[in-house]
Amino acid sequence: MALEGVLRGALAGVDLGDGFHVLPGQGNALAAETDAGVVLVDAGSVRAAPSMIEHLRSVSSAPVHAICYSHGHIGYNAAVGTWLAHASERGEAPPRLVAHENLPRRYARYRETLHLQARMAAVQFPSREGAPWERMLQAFQMTDPGEVFADALLVVDGDRRVEARWAPSETDDAIALWFPDDGLLYGGAATPGDAIPNIGTPLRTQRFTVRWADTLERLAALGATTLVTEFGPVVRGEAVVHERLARTAEALRWLREAVVERMNRGMSEAEVLADLEYPPDLFEQPWMTPNYGCPDYIARDLYREENGWWDRNPTTLHPAAPDAAAEALRSVVDPSAVLDRARDLADAGEAQLALHVVDLLALAPGDAPEVVAARALKAELCRTRAGEVLPYVSRALYRSSARLLDGGATSWRDLA
Questions:
Q1: CATH assignment of 3-190?
Q2: Has residue 192 got a pLDDT over 50?
């Protein structure tokens, strides 16, 4: 599935009533009518912005007073320039650009690592046609906010009060918008929807589980009667909103305790993952579906918070060059036995174990027939695993890996 499909909110185009509208942006982009003008959460992607503007103008002619950046991930506000041009065409003052004070630092880091960000996006959100990663660069436009805050900011003080609250969660610059007169909370990245918090995603930096739990508990204390999530549904009813926020925080705190207890017993990351069993009453709730992230991701992120990079295997402390190590392994294994064993495991429904076995050959350099066969088998196994696991990101990475192997490559330096 392409980037646009994965990141489209479930409420695109929905009118919530009382002057609240969800625009078809990247996620559920909320537009709220106030006596100062429209307050918009996120300008959306470059591709989505024209439809967002068209929808807004079908329901309101008011100027856009402020664009609030829900968080600093690239894409959510790539189209700020489009909205500024729209205001200029209408003869209106440019909207205020409001964000948390951490966001400009994130943008600076993204500019420094722009090609890395594009490569990661191409792998995590593979298109069906296998577009080059350079195409992603077109979507990564960044406009720095003109107004930042630390803990809270009163965006509008009028007939409809609008408060921006710091809500560190998926990022350290995430915010939530609170409309106290309406009892409506836009949770932003802190409340992804009917999905477990996106912590520990394989290609991303740490997201700090307990910090996210703290944020959810602070949001729960607001007493909101309506919660608009980032990608999922509108949640209505004070008790229902509170349960969703508080129970998610409880699950995150359970994970912290469970991982720490095992680390204190000397377990490695792999041993922790193999030993964990997630309580159904916490993790089998509708809002904890592992359809993008998953509990294993979170456990690994928690492990990284307290440990260095070493996996407890002394071989990896000062490793040989990847090609040299792989070639040395190939020289001592029977290629036909490796391939036969991997295929037997795959036929028995053990695709993951088969991957471990086939790597004895598949990582080797060169184009010897047995190596080429191993890479082809590994690609098949990756596609099998993509159909077995639930988290979108894992499925995407298996598919991207298969595509790389299909091209005869093993290094992501060879990513098209």
A1: 3.60.15.10
A2: yes
